[in-house]
Design goal:
Layout: E1 2-4, E2 14-20, H1 24-39, H2 44-65, E3 73-81, E4 84-90, H3 117-124, E5 127-133, E6 136-144
Antiparallel strand pairs: 1-2, 2-3, 3-4, 4-6, 5-6
Amino acid sequence: MDQLGTDPNGIGSRWEAVYRSELTSVDEAEAQVVALAEKYGFDEDDLHKIGIALREGMVNAVVHGNKYSAEKQVFLTVVRQEEGLSVIIRDQGAGFDLSQVPDPLAQENLLRESGRGILLMQAFMDEFQVRRLSDGTEITMVKYQAS
């Protein structure tokens, strides 16, 4: 389900989508958000960063949050702001405490197959926030646009 405001290029416009808890949703969400960011005038480097951050956030929501549950969904919102773009991803999982996530750069974690998603989202976006909700986890990422 997609919803797009009446003026997708206008400041404050909002785009929303709901995805199933499966990995194919990650590709769909990335393509849609990168297309929106391109429409908003982000350059190629920022489009790449937005795409990677979005992919990592969606994978975390599907795999770690919803644990691939067919009964749970991932909610994605993109808001066009004067200074850039906000991306909000919400799952319906049990939630987590960001301070309890192992440091992916610690020696004992360097060879782990997972655990770098949050680091990548923080590195590629200008703002990153995690909020634990009563019915899941919500991450908000902001990418500012160069003037």
